[in-house]
Specification:
CATH topology: TIM Barrel
Strand order of the largest sheet: 1-2-3-4-5-6-7-8
Mean pLDDT: 96
Distance between the termini: 6 Å
Order of helices and strands: EHEHEHHEHEHEHHEHEH
Radius of gyration: 18 Å
């Protein structure tokens, strides 16, 4: 497999993630913009694509960078206010509220792609069930209704379902819909799957499940993307937490190694991936810009080795 450029979930490393000032934020994006092998960004969309606004982001990043929009950050923020919020929620009012949030994303993506054709290449969706309701069947049925509606809209980008650790796992973090049910719901649609290394590893509390999930999505003809976030069994990134730990080459406690990335890419080479990349977190709120950038550059380097 030849080297390619990657989608970078840089926002958890950005100073704004820790409510730092605009000057630091500018320096961060300036240094990231000078980094090779970047195809574009994974960006959360709350009201806007950046805490300082869409225009700010476009002004401080290269014009040819593409964007993968993720719904996860706003989904989790809203679930913090009401645990029933989600596309797979058996609470009908909160399911509809989540569909309305996706309508906002649809309008946002349309507006961006009207101005900059091809700028947003994909939307990452998440099958969030009602917190505290362990009924997989009800969650699956709710998710199916949400997907039927959303998939019927006219999208100017690809739709990609990000598998998060399942509600049936031994110690759920996100506790979303199991992979088998997700694959069943999307099989008659154009929606593909994105496997995130950490979210699969957390589900099984082992480092073998990410590869199994990639193979399962491949068998279903649904593998669309792979992204690499790490997790740890101990240390400052916690015990099997979904905190986007860097690769083991940068963070000694990380369970995610460049070799594991290579194994996933080797398996995924049978599919035509829409994108691949990293999403990594700077755990130290007071870290300087150079350390924040170093985490991401190490991740890009790991992926370059893995795809060589």
């Amino acid at each position: 497999m030849t080297n390619t450029d990657f989608i970078i979930g840089a926002y958890p490393c950005a100073p704004s993630f820790h409510q730092k000032g605009e000057q630091e934020e500018q320096a961060f994006w300036r240094e990231l913009s000078d980094t090779p092998h970047i195809r574009g960004l994974e960006q959360p969309c709350l009201e806007n694509l950046h805490p300082l606004g869409d225009e700010w982001l476009f002004r401080h990043t290269p014009g040819d960078w593409q964007i993968v929009v993720t719904a996860v950050m706003e989904t989790m923020r809203r679930r913090g206010l009401n645990g029933a919020f989600g596309l797979a929620s058996a609470d009908e009012d909160q399911r509809k509220a989540c569909v309305e949030f996706y309508r906002h994303l649809h309008q946002k993506i349309d507006a961006v792609n009207s101005r900059f054709p091809g700028k947003v290449i994909a939307l990452e969706m998440q099958a969030a069930p009602q917190a505290g309701n362990a009924c997989v069947d009800r969650a699956t049925e709710a998710f199916s209704r949400s997907i039927r509606e959303i998939a019927g809209w006219d999208w100017s980008c690809d739709l990609v379902l990000e598998h998060c650790d399942a509600m049936t796992g031994p110690s759920p973090r996100k506790g979303f819909l199991p992979l088998e049910q997700v694959l069943e719901v999307v099989k008659e649609t154009d929606i593909s799957l994105r496997i995130n290394w950490a979210r699969s590893a957390i589900e099984g509390r082992n480092t073998t499940l990410p590869l199994e999930h990639v193979k399962a999505a491949l068998r279903a003809g649904k593998l669309g993307a792979v992204m690499f976030s790490g997790t740890t069994a101990q240390g400052e990134y916690g015990e099997w937490q979904d905190l986007h730990a860097p690769f083991s080459s940068f963070c000694a406690e990380s369970l995610m190694t460049p070799e594991q990335a290579e194994a996933l890419f080797t398996a995924a080479s049978a599919a035509t991936l829409k994108f691949s990349g990293i999403k990594l977190l700077e755990i130290n709120a007071n870290a300087d810009v150079s350390h924040r950038i170093a985490i991401l550059r190490d991740g890009i380097s790991a992926l370059n080795k893995a795809t060589r």
